[in-house]
């Protein structure tokens, strides 16, 4: 398994931090706060299936932006 380039991790983290909503990435049995760059850097691998949980006042926009961003970088993601 190979990790993603730092620029991808930073881009995802910066996008998440633009929203007030809680954005949590579920991978296997782990739950990672997408607003935590450290959590992302040890979690994001290019060949895994991810689930995103987004809740909060701007969740509709956050869902749209985050899904588009994950797909842009060819990361398999579903919303739960």
TrEMBL record:
Keywords on this record?
A: Sugar transport, Transport
HPr domain residues are: 1-80
Q: Which Pfam families match?
A: PTS-HPr
Query: What InterPro entries does the entry give?
Result: HPr-like, HPr-like_sf
- Gene3D superfamilies the record matches: HPr-like (3.30.1340.10)
Q: Which stretches are transmembrane?
A: none
**Family matches, as PROSITE patterns:** PTS_HPR_DOM
Q: What is this protein called?
A: PTS sugar transporter
């Amino acid at each position: 398994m190979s990790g993603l380039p730092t620029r991808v991790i930073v881009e995802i983290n910066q996008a998440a931090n633009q929203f007030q909503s809680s954005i949590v990435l579920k991978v296997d049995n782990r739950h990672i706060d997408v607003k935590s760059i450290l959590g992302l850097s040890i979690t994001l691998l290019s060949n895994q299936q991810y689930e995103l949980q987004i809740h909060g006042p701007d969740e509709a926009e956050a869902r749209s932006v985050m899904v588009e961003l994950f797909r842009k970088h060819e990361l398999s993601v579903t919303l739960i």
